[in-house]
Amino acid sequence: MAKQLQRVCHDALDFIQVPGYPSAIRVFALTHSRRNVVQRYPWLISFSLGHKMKIRLAEKSEAEAISRFVSELAVTHIGSTLQVEGLENLLRSMDVDSTITRMTDGFPHWVALEGGRIVGIAVVKPPSHIYHLFVRSDRQRSGIGRRLMNEALWFISDRCGRATVTVNSSLNAVDAYRRFGFRNAGDEVVDGAGVRFQPMSRDLPSRAS
Q1: Burial annotation 43-76 (CB, 10 A radius, 16+ → b, else e)
Q2: What is the pTM of this model?
Q3: Is residue 172 part of a domain?
Q4: 198 by DSSP, 3-state: which?
């Protein structure tokens, strides 16, 4: 069923809150506006996910919670791929002051919340770079990462139209980004200040295509 819906709308699955449902599945195309999709395909409504979850833009007052969230996950999932110096540099870039600086500089931060607690984070460095994408360990492979990615892609598409989206993937996350449509941008793993990553990219289609 999901593959059939993807063929209809040409791109990825997105999840939204719908009155009467804990959460529901919506299909969208980056080549169409949300309004056009709803008008043309009003029957694309529901697959319950069983968790009450919402995604919204974060506020600066949440910088400390965001910093703690991404730092803990970085230690857990990325730390083993880095030397001590690299991990220290990575964590320094995730501290509260750095987080506030990015928010002040216009990096949109989306938080996924369940019961008021953060379960996922996505950050875009404008115009089209995925700066962070983290999901709490026990909620990975539950659709939260895709929801957050879709928010980021909508943001980029709304502002850039046709664009190449880039990400510097930690080595443990390469397969996850491939599931989101990214491919390696070059064969070499890059080492920047001791932080090792795989450059990746994917194209967003023109809205007119």
Answers
A1: ebeeeebeeebebeebeeebbebbbebbbebbee
A2: 0.75
A3: yes
A4: strand
Residue 172, domain CATH: 3.40.630.30
Report DSSP state, residue 42.
T
Tokens of 59: 């506020």
Is there a domain that residue 8 lies in? yes
Same domain? 43 vs 63: no
**Count of domains in the chain?**
2
Q: Measured between alpha carbons, how far is 143 from 135 in angstroms, rounded to an integer?
A: 10
Phi and psi angles of residue 116, each rounded to the nearest 5 degrees, phi first:
80, 0
Same structural domain for residues 2 and 76? no
Q: For residue 103, what are the domain limits? A: 53-204
Nearest Cα to Cα of residue 129 among 208, 44, 197: 197
Domain check: are 13 and 113 in the same one?
A: no
DSSP string, 69-114: HHHHHHHHHTGGGS-HHHHHHHHHHTSHHHHHHHHHTT--EEEEEE
Token pair 């080595």: residue: 171
Choose among 200, 158, 181, 201: nearest CA to 10. 181
72-124 pLDDT tens trace: 999 999 999 999 999 999 999 999 999 999 999 999 999 999 999 999 999 99
Q: Are residues 42 and 66 in the same domain?
A: no
12 and 58 inside one domain: no
Beta bridge mates, 190: 197
Whole-angstrom Cα Rg for the chain:
17
d(CA 189, CA 173): 13
